[in-house]
Amino acid sequence: MQTNQVKERLLIDGEWVSTKETHKIYNKFTGELFSEISVASEELVDRAVTAAVTAYKKVAFAPDERYRVLMRVAQLLEQNSEQFAKMIAEEGGKPITDARTEVKRSVATFQMAADETKKLVGEIIPNYNAQGRFLYTIKKPIGVVAAITPFNFPLNLVVHKVAPSLAAGNPVIIKPASDTSTITVKLCELLEEAGVPKGYAQCVIGSGRTVGEQLLNDQRIAHYTFTGSPGVGKHIQKTIGLRKATLELGSNSATIVHDDADVEKAADKLAKMAFAHAGQICISVQRIYVQESVLDRFMERFLDEVSRLKVGDPLNPDTNVGPMISEVEAERVESWVEEARQEGANIVTGGKRTKNLFSPTVITNVKKGMKVVDEELFAPVVTVSSYKTIEEAIDLINDSKYGLQAGIYTADLNLSYRIPYLLEVGGVVINDTCCYRTDQMPYGGVKESGNGKEGPAYAIQELVETVTVVVNIEE
Ligand SMILES: NC(=O)c1ccc[n+]([C@@H]2O[C@H](COP(=O)([O-])OP(=O)(O)OC[C@H]3O[C@@H](n4cnc5c(N)ncnc54)[C@H](O)[C@@H]3O)[C@@H](O)[C@H]2O)c1
Ligand SMILES: O=C[C@H](O)CS(=O)(=O)O
């Protein structure tokens, strides 16, 4: 598989298409040209949707065939895992060790979706109060799906949409983030090689303003599965009217360190997860709340661990923190940190920028109203605050427009069972950080963090229509 410096094409209606307009993608660490991608014209996007509609109506893709194809993609991906990991590191800037994990997870996501093809069953409805009728449901593919994806997990978050869509029997049109789209093109090559029927998997690359908007306004598309920023998520929901969307959006996720916890263990793990992929993870640890009595102990260990993080070349296996996606994003974070400093925050370590590399930054003495607390940072920056009572910590977490995941370190079993009911989030992690996800779990947020759940078994339920059948069995 060739990656660098090749003019990449788009998979549309079973054909590989080159266009005059291209998008240049650069290596996020070296700044060198990585690839040049064809950009979909209005006519090509239209052709992709037409092909998907035709495939949905006319091309059989039975569940057993879907199973075989999805398992074959998983196998091909595994065989090409190192090339994909390298692409994620170069095109996406993710440290190679984490990039390898992403590929491994993507293989598993395909396998899990394949398994779901065997479970697509409806149910028999009790005929209580409906004598003379036999009632049951069937699960029908919902129709054409548009998968719109972000830059930060350029493989696995595409797979989390493509695999369940295909498992459900839906044609899927992928519109990835342009700056990490070579990976989608390469994935489409594997989908084709594995035997996905013509029109069932296509990619259209281009900006959200053009290609994205065209997809949103095309009434032939039945479902939008989107991962990205809350602003775009809200816009999608507004634009598509009564059609359905699954929206996985942003967050300012928090983790509590309670005084009965293994404080050192918590500090070590939090130092790793607050800065993983330069903080560009939707459930990245952005706010840490430590109980007052253990704050000094926590800070000593935490800062020591942070000082050991290696920042730099994603291809170096020792690197913990790579570059941010762009200099513009790094500048945004720099200005937010400076703004916090001017408003009284204490920059304990970090706060330095070299082009798109931002040093791991720890901020204390923060308060509500500061962007570093209220908004999604999406950068290697974390705030640490103390609390007196657990009720206070819960209020601090809930006092947010977001609600994706939260974590708590505690030895209190009672509190562990109680707290998931009290936190306004889609997932609670006990004795680990908020930045935990395994691909089979239902995953998704509340409030401005979105709606709907991903994880193949859950995503597939959003991608099928439950049709009720009523049979009159009266004599
Ligand atoms: N909750 C989750 O599971 C999850 C996972 C990863 C990332 N995210 C979020 O994604 C964001 C970072 O990723 P990003 O910067 O790539 O997000 P983004 O919202 O800028 O872009 C995401 C995708 O939306 C497209 N898009 C932009 N404008 C559009 C429009 N008007 N119509 C249709 N499509 C449009 C983009 O081209 C891209 O493909 C963060 O907010 C992060 O929290 C959430
Ligand atoms: O960025 C958010 C993604 O969901 C990352 S992960 O899949 O949770 O690791």
UniProtKB/TrEMBL annotation:
The UniProt record lists the keyword Disulfide bond: no
Domain Aldehyde dehydrogenase intervals: 16-469
SUPFAM superfamilies: ALDH-like (SSF53720)
InterPro entries xref list: Ald_DH/histidinol_DH (IPR016161), Ald_DH_C (IPR016163), Ald_DH_N (IPR016162), Aldehyde_DH_dom (IPR015590), ALDH-related_metabolic_enz (IPR051020)
Catalytic activity, EC: 1.2.1.97
Record bears the keyword Transcription: no
Catalysed reaction equations from the record: (2S)-3-sulfolactaldehyde + NAD(+) + H2O = (2S)-3-sulfolactate + NADH + 2 H(+)
UniProt keyword list: Oxidoreductase
GO terms assigned for molecular function: lactaldehyde dehydrogenase (NAD+) activity
Family label: Belongs to the aldehyde dehydrogenase family.
Function comment: Part of the sulfo-TAL (or sulfo-SFT) pathway, a D-sulfoquinovose degradation pathway that produces sulfolactate (SL). Catalyzes the oxidation of 3-sulfolactaldehyde (SLA) to sulfolactate (SL).
Protein name as annotated: 3-sulfolactaldehyde dehydrogenase
